[in-house]
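Good morning C.,

I know you're traveling, so I'll keep this short. The sequence:
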Amino acid sequence: MPKKVLIFDDDEDILAICTYILEEQGWEVSTFSNCNNVIEKVESIMPEVILMDNWIPDSGGILATQTIKQQEKLKHIPVVYFSANNDIKTLAQQAGADSFLAKPFDLEELENIVNHVHVVPQYKTGRA
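The tokens, ready to paste straight into the viewer:
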């Protein structure tokens, strides 16, 4: 069963690059260019990792991430917040994201962060 990643970004080039790179790494990639009905979108895919853009229409990445993290059955899914904003770390913390990736990013950085957050939650659950 392939690992699933869900990407929310309104930049078609970013979606295409991320899809190509992550599929090469064995991920099943799903993408959305807006975060309308974000809960339904995430529930329909139930990914292992979510990549969330800051400037995603319509409500924006912060609200979309907070909405996901408030859902009992979705809050365990790691969210990587990504943006070209200079204050990406603060935005990611405000959103409640598990990690962040500044745009533009190196393709190896993308692979590393997605694989890292995919592994980390398994350790978190053991400490409860």
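Safe travels,
E.
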